[in-house]
Amino acid sequence: MRIVKKEIAEAVEWTENHEAYVNPYYGCSAGCPFCYWLNIPGWEGTFEVRTNIVSALEDFCSCSENAGCRIYFGSYGDPYADELERDFQLTRQCLEMLQKMQRPVTISTSARSNLILRDIDLLKQIPNLTVITELCRLDQLERLTQGQTHIGVDVSNDLHRAGVRVIGTFAPILPGITDSVAVRAALDPAIPLYIDHMYIQGNSIQAQRVIAFIQKEFPKLENLYQKYFEKDSETCALFERYVLSLANHDNTFMMPFEEET
Ligand code: SF4
Question: Which CATH topology does 2-254 take?
Fold first, then answer.
């Protein structure tokens, strides 16, 4: 991955639901074939380090019209990207400032390392904090099926035991390839898990990547997935039923979830 340092004009990117998102780092090295950001030109292959994010966020939070607004971390990149946060500590510096301001915070992390545990004492001092862990990383699921640990699950459990509010997510589920059952079994039963369908268009880069992955790792499923991407109604209904069958029991629910304001 190429690392580029950049100064940004605004700390916050607003979502269509008017959520204030902050991305100290932009880009990701996980290489998930289903990643929804793959079609953003220039997103893949480069990490952007937003060197002035702390002062830009302080400007945003100091503005009276943004008083009390919940700050979300991590949409286009992991705020705890191990390759970057270990050296730059921009997420930690932002959180220290928000803790002093007592702002509500949500952190979304792909939890591919346990770096977030470095900040556990700080996290516990932030009021109204939620950590969302993304638990469908293919390499970690493979480890779990081999009887090894899933680092995102371990991190979720450690945070939960420390008193931090944690929500696990598993999206998308790829029927026949990944499912949430093993993750649910390894996750502390008190941590809610939110799952979702796969929202990928048949002619997209994500569909091409998923098919290439299946050809290599699950060749028997290629025809099924081709039919799914061609919108074959029986296959789509089969996939939908499968995902729904995993929800609404064992503290597992369908996305989306509502964050407290
Ligand atoms: S971890 Fe998330 S952001 Fe990174 S490639 Fe996978 S889906 Fe995309």
Answer: TIM Barrel (3.20.20)
